[in-house]
Design brief:
The complex is a heterodimer of chains A (about 120) and B (about 110). Chain A is mainly beta. Chain A is about 0% helix and about 55% strand. Chain A is built from no helices and eleven strands. Chain B has a single domain, classed as Immunoglobulin-like, CATH 2.60.40.10. In chain B, a hairpin with a 4-residue loop joins β7 and β8. In chain B, the strands form two sheets. In chain B, strands 2, 4, 5, 9, 10 and 11 form a six-stranded mixed sheet that branches. Chain B contains no helices and eleven strands. Classes of the chains: A mainly beta (about 120), B mainly beta (about 110). Chains A and B meet through β5, β9 and β10 of A and β5 and β9 of B.
Amino acid sequence: DAGVIQSPRHEVTEMGQEVTLRCKPISGHDYLFWYRQTMMRGLELLIYFNNNVPIDDSGMPEDRFSAKMPNASFSTLKIQPSEPRDSAVYFCASSFRHGGTGELFFGEGSRLTVL
Amino acid sequence: ELKVEQNPLFLSMQEGKNYTIYCNYSTTSDRLYWYRQDPGKSLESLFVLLSNGAVKQEGRLMASLDTKARLSTLHITAAVHDLSATYFCAVANTNAGKSTFGDGTTLTVKP
């Protein structure tokens, strides 16, 4: 398997623009997670899905953030409108929990810079 | 609410020395994970500990789990520069599908 695939790897945008980050999890995994990492706040869980259903979005900072998982092989995290404080590395991870060990497999991350 | 505490948060070691990173957690769990993150890179899984008394070793790293004490340790033997990275422990929430991460321990091994 190719692992968790994220795109874009780097994104530079201006404040107010819409940003869409994409993730393809490992085939057969039943959980998908979106994390954000910054120097100031460390690693934060934003939202996670089980079998394409959002389970806990309490980590989503505000209404400007939204996430979807229309099918088992694709998820998006959207920020609209973006702000400079959204600058961070966004990681997608997937796991196989029920029947597996539940360890997370992370994508390479999407580095977002909002000017 | 599950809380995970790692210590130390920063560790500077000389090559060849031994040291231990500690991971304490607040509520019962049956799964604990260690991850490594190199600077500017993603996180990768190092160890999965699934039962009390579990011990896993790879190279100079050894991880153990004591579920009764709610404690895991990551022991570094004869450190080398290549081990410089940030190490995270993560504890599975028994009643949810997610894991709670510690703040990470940034290890710097000096020659």
